[in-house]
Amino acid sequence: MAVLVTGGAGYIGSHTCVELLNAGYDVVVADNLSNSSEVSLQRVEQITGKPVAFYRADVRDASKLDEIFERHDIRQVIHFAGFKAVGESVAKPLMYYRNNLDSTIGLCEAMLRHKVGELVFSSSATVYSPGNTMPLSETSSTGNCTHPYGWTKFMCEEIIMDVVRAHKGFSAALLRYFNPVGAHPSGLIGEDPSGIPNNLMPFISQTAVGRRKELSVFGDDYDTPDGTGVRDYLHVVDLAKGHVSAIRYLDDHDGVHIFNLGTGRGTSVLEMVRTFEKVNHVPVPYRITDRRPGDLATVYADPSKSNRELHWKTELDLEDMCCDSWNWQSSNPNGYES
Ligand code: NAD
Ligand code: UFG
């Protein structure tokens, strides 16, 4: 009995493969390596001592999916495959709609063809409308997304909800992640963004390791305790465990279920920088710059539904996130190419 993990060679996918294997599941990965390296899966095998069945496959390739479903006894699917860079989605909207929507539609079709009825989908806090009050709960309003990437997540949620309504026996968990950071404590797998990182933590760790001159802190005049942006960062290992909880949940819950995966705690940019410097004893040079267009002052989750229903709660704190990010970055200064 295996779990198919699309996009399993990527950042969150590889950490989830580790937790699935540790929990006793067999793992089959389909990834076209458009934003990842197969080395991550070799490292997953090294960490767990268990094999991963890997297919270099595009999830939009129906015949390849048929081959995978025919070869393995797949009961659940976790769908990570997709593009995720906000700025790139503004510049190349069709590439984002094409990949993220087609992969989700093609995957659901293949699941129906092969009578596989449990899907866990990687959604994002970006589906929430900008005007909500904090914390965001699963019933906060969604839509009015400010970029194509956000709309792809919103639309995929709608597509999956329609599939669940139409097809008896098909159930889904839509997991809305807040800000995943950190790396496996072994230092063997972690986030390996190509080019200049868009997100805070990889930028901090690449600055600390000397790949970037300084961090730009995007604005210090927000209505937050120190004026810098506040987000709900969660450790990627906690996030990965949330997926194991979700597939267990679907074993005895029909229908569609939406869960926030976050800590419920907000951290500012400067608090993150200071924690990183303190736990790792490395300087992170920074400069305050203008606000980044489209950024909100404060975003954090109400994770109480996940705590209650998935029996999932984050266990690792900000110091763990900073320590494990640095452990990964300093032992692999150029990511998987190191
Ligand atoms: P990632 O880029 O590291 O992983 C995505 C993986 O999907 C990559 O390995 C890539 O090669 C693969 N892929 C892309 N298109 C594919 C296709 N058509 N067929 C097969 N493989 C394909 O990203 P990640 O950070 O691990 O994110 C995983 C998922 O979680 C994504 O759907 C992302 O949108 C979502 N998400 C991420 C964050 C975050 O901050 N990292 C936040 C919210 C949601
Ligand atoms: N920041 C900086 N400097 C940087 C990068 C980020 O100061 O170089 C600040 C941002 O202004 C923000 C905070 O750090 O205040 C976090 O920024 P990230 O880009 O790491 O994360 P966001 O919350 O802006 O974006 C994340 C995901 C997106 C998703 C969005 C909304 O990366 O995919 O949440 O849910 F769309």
The gist of it:
With 338 residues, this protein is an alpha/beta fold. It has helices spanning 11-22, 39-48, 62-71, 86-91, 93-113, 148-166, 200-208, 236-251, 269-280, 304-310, 318-331; strands at 2-6, 26-31, 53-56, 74-79, 118-124, 171-177, 179-181, 215-218, 230-231, 233-235, 256-261, 267-268, 286-289.
What is the fold's blueprint, element by element?
Layout: E1 2-6, H1 11-22, E2 26-31, H2 39-48, E3 53-56, H3 62-71, E4 74-79, H4 86-91, H5 93-113, E5 118-124, H6 148-166, E6 171-177, E7 179-181, H7 200-208, E8 215-218, E9 230-231, E10 233-235, H8 236-251, E11 256-261, E12 267-268, H9 269-280, E13 286-289, H10 304-310, H11 318-331
Parallel strand pairs: 1-2, 1-4, 2-3, 4-5, 5-6, 6-11, 7-10, 8-13
Antiparallel strand pairs: 9-12
Helix pairs in contact: 1-2, 1-8, 3-5, 5-6, 7-11, 9-11
Residues 6-7, 9-13, 30-36, 58-60, 80-82, 84, 99, 103, 122, 124, 177, 180 line the site of nicotinamide-adenine-dinucleotide (NAD).
Question: Overview of this structure, please?
Answer:
Helix content is 40%, strand content 17%. It has 338 residues and is α/β, with parallel strands linked by helices. The strands form 4 sheets. It has a 7-stranded parallel sheet with strand order 3-2-1-4-5-6-11, sandwiched between helices. The protein is globular. The mean pLDDT is 97. Residues 6-7, 9-13, 30-36, 58-60, 80-82, 84, 99, 103, 122, 124, 177, 180 line the site of nicotinamide-adenine-dinucleotide.
Give, in order, the helices and strands.
Answer: EHEHEHEHHEHEEHEEEHEEHEHH
Kindly, what is the distance between the CA atoms of the first and last residues, rounded to a whole number of angstroms?
A: 35 Å
DSSP strand (E) fraction? 15-25%
Low-confidence stretches: none
Instruction: Quote the average pLDDT.
Output: 97
Rounded radius of gyration (Å)? 19 Å
- List cofactors, ions and other ligands: nicotinamide-adenine-dinucleotide, uridine-5'-diphosphate-4-deoxy-4-fluoro-alpha-D-galactose
- Percent range for helical residues? 40-55%
Number of strands: 13
Enumerate the strands of the largest sheet in spatial order, edge to edge or round the barrel.
Answer: 3-2-1-4-5-6-11
Largest sheet: 7 strands, parallel
Spatial shape? globular
Class from helix and strand fractions: alpha/beta
Summed up, the helix count is 11
